[in-house]
Specification:
This protein is an alpha/beta fold. The protein is built from eleven helices and 20 strands. Helices cover 25% and strands 24% of the residues. Strands 1, 3, 4, 5, 6, 8, 9, 11 and 13 form a nine-stranded mixed sheet that branches. Strands 14, 15, 16, 17 and 19 form a five-stranded mixed sheet that branches. It has a two-stranded parallel ribbon with strand order 2-10. It starts with a helix and ends with a helix.
């Protein structure tokens, strides 16, 4: 692009030449850098073939955590992920952590792991390397599922490679990536070793006044869900918190590594109760963020650090205010399914070809056609009490609620015809866990998925209503949602 700009070519021509050049590179790209579904799914434990309705005697739960932040931030170059490229970290505001929970219902069918990592996202390939370390250690017998999700902090060290010195350079640090995977695996094993018997509860709180949606339709999950484990021996309690909100409140100008508001939510919980916590994000596609995200992005006088900390503390207070709890029967069921999705995003494919992205991709020889190899999971806790949809990206909330844009208000002029996730479960309560076991960007309804007619994913376009379609440039393609939602519908049906 720099050379083309130097030649004085118009922007549209430069972009079109770039698209054509990218297609040539993709067609001739080395086949060795890609994989197969069999290889990519080697460490994806399938879970329960059918779901059981027979609860165990009690819950056995373990928790552990580990600091991931390297000691030499500010001395060695680490790029902050989430907003701008070429943004080296100058210091550390608060640490990145891996936090792992081990769940066992004592039915003899094995345990389930949920590990949350303070980062913008992790590819399935990287997660499988964590799984491999755990599984091959042999230290957790009868393990039936390992799930790793990203909190999606926009102030953490780049773990995807997209925010390096330039758009065509890798922002990941190899030593940090290796350390992160090793520490995450060690944390999962330590969670198993720290397990204790006890009781598990769930409760919810309305946080609709703390959230905003910056893309139509205005639709988001208004509930915060809290799981609380109380050990029978009186040890530290554990809070697992799910809410749908981008941790991006330090804004574009941040120079310090941070886990953003979930860290300060956790500090409030820890300081007031002495308990541990895990934050798992939800359906944040469509740009679900805090109620003051416009100020974060546009008000130069806003003290983003002070606001972020305050917001986190306020969410922590809400977590602790949940009073109406329900006891969860000791029963955990989970099932996972591998998927193959046509990758239509030329930039995504180019990122894989030049070695920036590590997502599992299958390629047809001597063509530019590629498929992303990913996975979904469905998890239930208790006797039809909690249903959790584990999704490999930033899912638009409409896929859960069914509140899609009508045909006349959509960019493409037709209705979105998807079965809502909430209709796929008969549990009392359900929610989405986003960016789980992969990071595939935004998952967008096809009726409102719009790209530039000539430049495709290389350009952000506007529709006939004047709405900007930025998210499409950070997605796999318009058919991604159909594959994921239909597969989840089939998955939830087959375990009955």
């Amino acid at each position: 692009m720099t050379v083309l700009r130097f030649l004085g070519l118009p922007a549209a021509v430069r972009k079109l030449i770039s698209v054509l050049a990218a297609l040539i590179i993709l067609t001739l790209s080395p086949f060795a850098s890609f994989t197969t579904q069999e290889e990519a799914s080697k460490y994806m434990l399938p879970g329960d073939e059918t779901f059981s309705s027979d609860a165990g005697a009690c819950w056995t739960v373990g928790f552990s955590k580990a600091v991931l932040t390297p000691d030499d931030v500010g001395e060695k170059t680490y790029y902050i992920a989430g907003y701008n490229s070429n943004n080296p970290a100058e210091g550390v505001l608060d640490d990145m952590y891996a936090r792992a929970v081990y769940l066992d219902d004592n039915t003899g069918r094995g345990g389930v792991v949920l590990c949350a990592i303070d980062c913008v996202g992790l590819s399935r390939h990287d997660i499988n390397e964590i799984r491999a370390l755990v599984i091959e250690s042999g230290k957790i017998p009868a393990l039936k599922s390992v799930n790793v999700c990203a909190t999606h902090s926009h102030s953490a060290i780049d773990t995807q490679g997209l925010w390096g010195k330039s758009y065509v350079s890798d922002g990941k640090d190899a030593e940090f990536q290796k350390s992160l995977k090793e520490k995450a695996a060690e944390t999962i094993i330590a969670a198993y070793e720290a397990r204790a018997d006890g009781t598990l509860y769930y409760g919810t709180a309305d946080i609709s006044g703390k959230l905003a949606d910056t893309r139509t339709p205005i639709d988001f999950n208004p509930l915060l869900t809290r799981l609380r484990f109380a050990p029978a021996d009186g040890g530290k309690e554990l809070y697992v918190v799910n809410m749908s909100c981008h941790p991006e409140l330090l804004g574009r100008g941040t120079k310090n590594v941070s886990a953003d508001f979930p860290a300060y939510m956790g500090k409030e919980i820890e300081e007031r109760t002495g308990s541990e916590f895990v934050f798992v994000n939800g359906a944040i596609g469509g740009q679900i963020s805090s109620d003051r995200i416009d100020d974060v992005l546009k008000d130069p006088d806003l003290d983003c650090e002070a606001y972020m900390k305050q917001y986190g503390r306020e969410i922590g207070e809400i977590v602790l205010s949940v009073a109406d709890e329900t006891r969860i029967a000791p029963l955990v069921n989970i099932r996972s399914q591998a998927l193959s999705i046509a990758c239509e995003n030329t930039i995504f494919k180019l990122g894989k070809t030049i070695g920036i992205l590590t997502n599992d991709i299958e390629k047809q020889k001597f063509t530019a056609e590629m498929n992303v190899l990913t996975e979904i999971s469905y998890l239930e806790l208790g006797e039809k009490q909690i249903g959790m949809f584990l999704i490999p990206g930033e899912l638009y909330s409409e896929f859960y609620s069914g509140n899609f844009l009508p045909a006349e208000e959509s960019a493409n002029g037709f209705a979105a015809e998807y079965k809502p996730l909430r209709e796929m479960t008969d549990c009392e309560h359900s929610f989405v866990v986003g960016l789980c076991n992969d990071a595939l960007g935004y998952i967008i309804p096809d009726n409102d998925f719009l790209n530039n007619e000539w430049l495709g994913f290389f350009d952000i376009c506007k529709d006939q209503f004047g709405r900007t379609h930025y998210e499409e440039t950070n997605s796999v393609g318009p058919n991604e949602a159909r594959v994921i939602i239909d597969a989840m519908d089939a998955l939830t049906a087959c375990v009955r």
